[in-house]
Amino acid sequence: MKALPPSLEKKLQTRTNEGALRSLPDALHLTDFASNDYLGLSKSTALHKTADNLLSKRKFYGNGATGSRLITGNHSLYREAETAIAQFHNVESALIFNSGYDANIGFFSCVPQKNDVVLYDEFIHASIRDGLRLGNATAYKFKHNDLAALEKSILQHREKAQELYIVTESVFSMDGDSPDLKQLTGIAAKYSCRIVIDEAHAVGIFGTNGEGLIQHIGLEDEVFARIVTFGKAMGCHGAAVLGVKELKEYLVNFARSLIYTTGLPPHALAKISAAYSVMLQQAEARQTLFKNVTFFKAEANRLHVSNLIPSDSAIQCVVIPGNEKVRHIAMQLQEQGYSIKPILSPTVPRGQERLRFCLHSYNTQDEISGILYSLKAIL
User: Fold this and answer.
1) What is the pTM of this model?
2) Which pLDDT tens digit goes with each residue over 163-174?
């Protein structure tokens, strides 16, 4: 077996020297402040039973899709799930991808064209950046949630752009904050731009039934496309692009991450459909989650925990600069029984390293107070 090339060894050593070397962690049974399972649906027996019933009624017993969706993998559960998803999100069509990464890679590599311009928030998810790199459009970042900077950039590029896309997240994964979406849609309308929103950390949480922040505010008709994912608050796996039916047809023909991969197996589609059904019963869980968010912020303020990033979502972050320092603090909290993860550079900018607290409907106030007391004692 041949050794790793020296150039790659050097890159690994650099990561080690910077305290940024990643490794795959073991699953620890600690008090959960790390997972994206905001409503606890990944462990929901109701979700599992609903999915099993869907499969048994339709006599689906296969383990795999057997091929890509364009060959043999497009079983009828896809059609049923996509129809239900589109209705739930008040949109013409939904197209399911194998993951959020696949959805963003597929969309951004093929929708913006050579003469188009994409303006994206500087903190946008890595999968969107990767998709843009694979595409032919010119892309520029703007300062995080700074709509004045965005408008200035629009004025610089609008005239030369055939289409101008604005890309952001409704809830940012590493900060938990949100842009002013009403103002954003107003700017987009003023300059005839197309808005694309990643709703990965909003779906399941915001809205009467967890429809996401865009629908919660009533802006679905102002947005060109939304990307929703199922592996977070919905407790299963996969993602979908929401838009007009012509967008779905286009993606089926040009999104390589959809065309050239095996489809999801029947049980995965049944879980997605089941999750949307079970979501309708999660009003109390969502209410409890937001009570926990309010309590966390009040406790952090009472204990004078500084450098808390302003956020009204389930993601709360305390900035602790330095990879080694934040990693060491996270390890101390883990030793006290809390599952909490440090977010290191280069995932976030150097100097913005942080502890990322993911709050859940099943966290108790005692658990929230406990981890904040422990953090304050360490700091």
Assistant:
1) 0.93
2) 999 999 999 999
